[in-house]
Design brief:
alpha+beta, four-stranded antiparallel sheet, single chain, about 70% helix, about 290 residues, Multidrug efflux transporter AcrB transmembrane fold, Alpha-Beta Plaits, 10 helices
Length: about 290
């Protein structure tokens, strides 16, 4: 009953975190990668010694490539992101980097392809959210007292927004600090977070529904509190196992999936937090409002 007893405190903490996330996104913004705005990506590797980034920037400056993003890869390489370049400009980049540099891969995406990816990403997001809403509406269709079934769905969507906004806000800070860009892996991470979040929330809601049906407890507040006590160990243990695996990917995995793993780690953590410390307290708060309680 600890969570329900301090329900307002946990809800306020969640509100503060979301406000900080929104502020981070508004202030820093999200930098679109070449997947969405088009451009070229070259991955090069040096045979003997890798020069520092300032030297690379100086060597590429005379080529008039516009904004150039240079990021280390592995121990001897760099990824170089620029606007879309011609074959002549591509050859000029390699020449500027010196004979010690070897091109490992080159990717070029046009603006039209980027716009198509943006459209498909938005459609995917909308379909996932609609699917979650319909699933919750169907699962809790027979729940009417003391909190209506549609309110379970509404609270689940609130927790989804909470779980999505916080990792995205953290990503905005990473984008500003380290030049991390929004790519297709970012979209996959956000969609995965939505799925992980709603899964944990539904487990808690389902236990509340079963305890309401059985009627072992006198009040709705007691029902929610006891339901949390029955499932929180399972939720935390399951999430912790996944988080350990994701952290291993963050620290020991390839650079290309590091941000993806960090996003999923944050999403898993806050998804578990919200199912226990946000969704369930909100159910009690909504029920109390219906009865005119504080």
């Amino acid at each position: 009953m600890f969570v329900i007893k301090h329900k307002k405190t946990f809800v306020i903490i969640s509100i503060i975190l979301v406000i900080f996330a929104i502020g981070s996104i508004s202030y820093f913004g999200l930098k679109l990668g070449i997947d969405f705005k088009g451009g070229s990506l070259s991955e090069v590797e040096y045979k003997t010694s890798r020069p520092d980034q300032a030297t690379i920037t100086k060597e590429l400056a005379p080529l008039s490539l516009g904004e150039v993003i240079i990021q280390p890869t592995g121990t001897m390489g760099y990824s170089i992101k620029t606007r879309a370049v011609s074959e002549t400009e591509r050859a000029g980049i390699l020449t500027a980097l010196g004979s010690d540099a070897t091109e490992k891969s080159f990717t070029s995406i046009g603006p039209s392809v980027g716009a198509e990816l943006v459209r498909k990403s938005i459609i995917s997001f909308i379909l996932v959210v609609l699917g979650i809403i319909f699933f919750i509406a169907y699962t809790f269709r027979k729940v009417s007292k003391p909190v209506s079934s549609w309110k379970y769905g509404l609270i689940a969507i609130v927790t989804l927004i909470h779980d999505m906004m916080i990792p995205v806000g953290a990503f905005a800070m990473l984008s500003h600090t380290y030049g991390t860009e929004v790519d297709t892996l970012f979209v996959v991470a956000v969609l995965t977070i939505l799925g992980l979040s709603v899964s944990d929330t539904i487990v808690v809601f389902d236990r509340i529904r079963e305890n309401i049906r059985v009627g072992h407890f006198k009040t709705f507040e007691e029902t929610v509190g006891k339901s949390l006590e029955q499932v929180y160990t399972r939720s935390i243990a399951t999430s912790s196992t996944v988080i350990i695996v994701l952290l291993a990917l963050v620290f020991f995995g390839p650079a290309s999936t590091k941000v993806f793993a960090m996003m999923l780690t944050a999403g898993m953590f806050f998804g578990t937090y919200s199912s226990i410390f946000l969704a369930s307290p909100l159910l009690v708060i909504v029920n109390n409002w219906q009865k005119g309680k504080k």
